[in-house]
Amino acid sequence: MTTKSPESGPTPFIKQLAANDRPTRDAAVDSLRTYLSGKRVFTKIDLLKLWKGLFYCMWMSDRPRTQQRLVVDLASLVDTMQENTALLFLECFWETMAREWNGIDVLRMDKFLLLVRGYLASSFRYLKVRNWSGDLLPRYMDILQEIPLHPTNIKIPNGIRYHLIDIYLDELEKLSPADSDSASIPDKLPIDILLIPFERLLEKSPTKPVRTRVKEMLGDDRLEKWGYSKFDNSDDEDPGDGDDDEEWTGFV
What we know:
By secondary structure, this protein is mainly alpha-helical. It has 13 helices and no strands. It has helices at residues 12-17, 22-37, 44-60, 64-76, 83-100, 106-129, 136-146, 158-173, 185-188, 191-194, 196-204, 208-218, 221-225.
């Protein structure tokens, strides 16, 4: 891990987002929410530039309570966006995380793990409010498959893959505590589509520890309750066994 800060400089607006005093921070978040929730058409370059600044904002946030509140505030930005803006914003988030991950030092890693969890949760919430309908869900699954959960792209750090494997089902379960015990949850949760990126990761990843972790995830007891029965965990033989002896040594 390095301690080099991101290239993006601290603009006044980004400094306001990272402020320790809540009124200043809330005003900046409200301004950004208004800006992003309008009908303006954003380009990918627009949002990548914005995420460069937001990443720096998270980088500079140095108090645990401020960090936690900032994650909640930033993740909630998605809630009021137009659909095309929301998907592009999430795509730029994942690209930024993948690009910057290896430069995050160990002292800062926890807050970025929390940020990833926050955005995974907000993306699920956004899709659920819209009843998982239309092409939103397949388009978002494509984003996950092509960026953080891409099975063979060596530019994607395994740390992101492991973290998503660890938290994915937990964040689905949190969508509605009442639903989690409901026999009708398969009708509400399109679990087969939601797990496509992990099925692909299991099938195509060249890294044995990644495949092992995905197998454990797909064998989770909650999935059977949610109507997922495609994965057979009775056969412990990994078709990729023998192609490497790599062991997981933590987030990279």
